[in-house]
Input
Amino acid sequence: MIDTMIAFVDELRTVGVPVSMVEAIDALAALEHVDLGDRSAFKHTLGATMVKNERHYEAFDAAFEAFFALHREKPDRAGTDQQGRTAPAQGPPGGGRGGDADLEELARAIMEALSAQDWAMLGVGAQEAVRRLAGIEPGRPVGGTYYLYRTLRRLDVDGMLQRLLAEARVEAGTLSPLEERLLREEMERRIERLRSELQAEIRRLLVADRGREAVARTLRSPLLEDIDLMHATRHDLARVEKAIRPLTRKLAARLAQKRKRRRAGRLDFRRTMRRALATGGVPFEPVFRSPNPHKPDIVLLCDVSGSMATFARFTLQFTYAMSGQFSKVRSFAFIDGVDEVTGFFEAGGDFARSMERITTEAEVVWLDGHSDYGNALDRFRERFGEAVTPRSTVIITGDARSNYRNPRPQMLGALSQSARALYWLNPEPRAYWDTGDSVMSAYAPFCDAVHEVRNLRQLEAFVEQVALPAPGRLRLAG
Output
């Protein structure tokens, strides 16, 4: 048990979940008061003592399932489980008429378990489905996702959901729109329960074949704040989008506390000396003028071309979620043309719809719809130059890939001279800058700072820097 716990903690640290030695010791001490046979209590005890951030719980869950996979008893040859329940008939997984009939019988048994919410029977059916349909080959280095997809496809889970809905509608009769929605959500939850049972069984078999550490490596995924926004899957993007709002609320609260604690006010000499009269003229308690921290105006220019569309989406969403930390936010989108899109983002509006409006309504294409940073900057100065004032902090997001067209860096230089500060956020790794058609080095000298921002952690750090600027203007490149 101790060796398993040590390996488990090492895995958590490898994926980025911070677990100190003291927390690991606390977890072991807490387990003394838990029934180790109760897997749910065991898991929650470890989570309560080791996980400090809810965004890390998914990584914890994946590691836990690998290191503490269930060891289930297989149904006996008569087709019953330990509770005496009848299991789906076991037959060869091959094709042919018999194989198809057996598959239909298995699917029907799983459907009956879902309809009756018989979770014990569903677990038995999931074991049999994985045994017959996943095609797990011992020693083959294939991730569990492949086997899960294979099993779900053979079971036709989407069709199973539709059949469940149809049967429930017949049984319920006429349904109102609300009842229909609730019914669909309930059936989707049951199908998700089936997915979880299948995934747990696949993981159990893989652990038995390859060992805990090997399976944990295949299950690793970056923490939510470290997901590369340029190469994220649809599932990852959905997770990031869901996390942005609570993340920005926490950041806003942290910024408010930092502003409150800052002692940036100048010494009030007169009040200091007046207070010193009570201590014989010795100024034990200096008095400072109340600081009046200035919230910056933000002018955001986002490259929304094909390669940058995903990054622009999250930059805009994050910035507008943080808009209360700025005195004003104006947004502009560009490809080879540029247009203002501030009005597309109304308070409480649908952000996805706002992004769709950019692609359909904004005049971001001037000639051929291929990125042209030089022309976009030139047209921005011509059409919207008044947006940049000495109070403005300009943020440009893009990879600086201009399709070998004239970058016109002097246009950026003119913007920089008009603004309070100018930052460039590039979602590409630094190693890719100035390769191919990238002209990052042509623009960097005119920026106060150029940041590699590829994930939420880096975006959060940058927003905090802008919202709490250091006094004075410091020229940095790179």
Residues 74-98, 471-478 have pLDDT under 50 and may be disordered.
